[in-house]
Amino acid sequence: MEALLRRRAVYVCQSCVRSARQPLWRNYSSAPPRPDIYDVVCVGGGPAGLSLLTALRANPNTSHLRVALVEAQDLSKIRSWSLPPTKFSNRCSSLTPSSVKFLEQIGAWEHIARDRVQPYQEMQVWDGVSGARIEFDWAGAAPNTGTTIAYMTENLNLTSGLLKRLEELGGVSTFDNARVENITHGEETEELDLREWPVVQLSGGKQLSARLLVGADGANSPVRSFANIEAKGWDYNRHGVVATVELEGEGWGGEFTKIAYQRFLPTGPVAMLPMPGKYSTLVWSTTPSNAALLKSLSPKDFTAMVNAAFTLSTVDLEYMHTQKSGQEEEYSWRMEHTPVDHRAVPQVVTGVQEGTVASFPLKLRHADTYVAERVALVGDAAHTIHPLAGQGLNQGQGDVQSLAKTIEYAVTHGQDIGVGMSLESYVSERYAANHVLLGVCDKLHKLYSFGSGPLVPLRSLGLSAVNALGPLKTFIMNQAAGNGMKVF
């Protein structure tokens, strides 16, 4: 028997060798599972973690793996999450057609409340200083490609749908309301050698041993810390202000042609992204002091500031940020003296949903690697990006799709799913692509932070040139949508 194991040493780990010395040898995937030993333990029940477990359970080649989910929040509340049709959560994401296709493949898309998902067909982007503009729409750029640029949905709608799909599939040991107290390596016993296996210690005393530990646990990842993987980057000294706002109508394109808007201001971009009906989600990147002011304003003054962000000059807008109140009157007076092409900007915002104005700090982080021995990182645990391109969640979905494919390959070829050699293809596929996108967004943020000087006409010339070059614009749209040749 030991001679057989030596011939198969390329696949068999030491724990399996020790088990094989018992009277009866059994493969790990078919042996009765021990209560605290899992093939995959995923820490983090956000979109990335839930998508990974759903993909593994939905695939016949990996559905036999024993998997566990660890999440600090109460998942029952997320699973049963519901809001009235006129109320929307302030944390929303833009899903590319590629991400939606993946969700369809794993059977999760049908569990997402579609009446709370809003596809959009056009996007208007312009320089807040010079007014140079670029317009994205598939109908004009590539008529045979499809008309949807992306799909807006609340993060809670996505996670709720994924949880429902996981419940439908079954076979996942879920530990919610459970905080990770510590992560260590296991011990050697008479039956098993788990000295190289991560052991997750939960509040309450439960311990989970993992053949592969997946960190989908956010930017301050305990899993990444356990693996001694450093994440390098910097803070932008900017906050992202989010809110759910109501417009005077369903947009200039009507019900069936929704338009997203983004204006680059020296303090950061401000974006208005369509939600169903007359509602939109606001993402405004600005200085911490401006963010604090916006959160302190009355609903009427906040609404005036949002309208001003898309219509007034940067000088007028800067002045309005110095006022502690009275922005509604100030905006009305300044609009009397400001010519505006109203169809080139979002429809007038008429109100803000109560309790949705919030902010979060913006930062760039990128882990030195996504894997260590028996550890893999996905989503924000691996990288954190500026929200100006709306690609954060899509990057995570790309990670998950790649990692699920990597695990499937290891299983179907008799490899140990946790060793570094089995995980190399995941890193090679995702690291460079994510690094390029992180760099592009970082350079765009810095390029548009200049309010004056020679860079302003140069960047405006470049934006106008891209807008005039149809093939180049189509290529950029394909990259953003996850279609075609992958460059970033």
TrEMBL record:
<dbReference type="Pfam" id="PF01494">
    <property type="entry name" value="FAD_binding_3"/>
</dbReference>
<dbReference type="InterPro" id="IPR036188">
    <property type="entry name" value="FAD/NAD-bd_sf"/>
</dbReference>
<feature type="domain" description="FAD-binding">
    <location>
        <begin position="38"/>
        <end position="432"/>
    </location>
</feature>
<keyword id="KW-0831">Ubiquinone biosynthesis</keyword>
<keyword id="KW-0560">Oxidoreductase</keyword>
<dbReference type="InterPro" id="IPR010971">
    <property type="entry name" value="UbiH/COQ6"/>
</dbReference>
<comment type="pathway">
    <text>Cofactor biosynthesis; ubiquinone biosynthesis.</text>
</comment>
<keyword id="KW-0830">Ubiquinone</keyword>
<dbReference type="GO" id="GO:0004497">
    <property type="term" value="F:monooxygenase activity"/>
</dbReference>
<dbReference type="InterPro" id="IPR000689">
    <property type="entry name" value="UbQ_mOase_COQ6"/>
</dbReference>
<keyword id="KW-0503">Monooxygenase</keyword>
<comment type="similarity">
    <text>Belongs to the UbiH/COQ6 family.</text>
</comment>
<keyword id="KW-0285">Flavoprotein</keyword>
<protein>
    <recommendedName>
        <fullName>Ubiquinone biosynthesis monooxygenase COQ6, mitochondrial</fullName>
        <ecNumber>1.14.15.45</ecNumber>
        <ecNumber>1.14.15.46</ecNumber>
    </recommendedName>
</protein>
<comment type="function">
    <text>FAD-dependent monooxygenase required for two non-consecutive steps during ubiquinone biosynthesis. Required for the C5-ring hydroxylation during ubiquinone biosynthesis by catalyzing the hydroxylation of 4-hydroxy-3-(all-trans-polyprenyl)benzoic acid to 3,4-dihydroxy-5-(all-trans-polyprenyl)benzoic acid. Also acts downstream of coq4, for the C1-hydroxylation during ubiquinone biosynthesis by catalyzing the hydroxylation of 2-methoxy-6-(all-trans-polyprenyl)phenol to 2-methoxy-6-(all-trans-polyprenyl)benzene-1,4-diol.</text>
</comment>
<keyword id="KW-0496">Mitochondrion</keyword>
<dbReference type="InterPro" id="IPR051205">
    <property type="entry name" value="UbiH/COQ6_monooxygenase"/>
</dbReference>
<dbReference type="InterPro" id="IPR018168">
    <property type="entry name" value="Ubi_Hdrlase_CS"/>
</dbReference>
<keyword id="KW-0999">Mitochondrion inner membrane</keyword>
<keyword id="KW-0274">FAD</keyword>
<dbReference type="InterPro" id="IPR002938">
    <property type="entry name" value="FAD-bd"/>
</dbReference>
<keyword id="KW-0472">Membrane</keyword>
<comment type="subunit">
    <text>Component of a multi-subunit COQ enzyme complex, composed of at least COQ3, COQ4, COQ5, COQ6, COQ7 and COQ9.</text>
</comment>
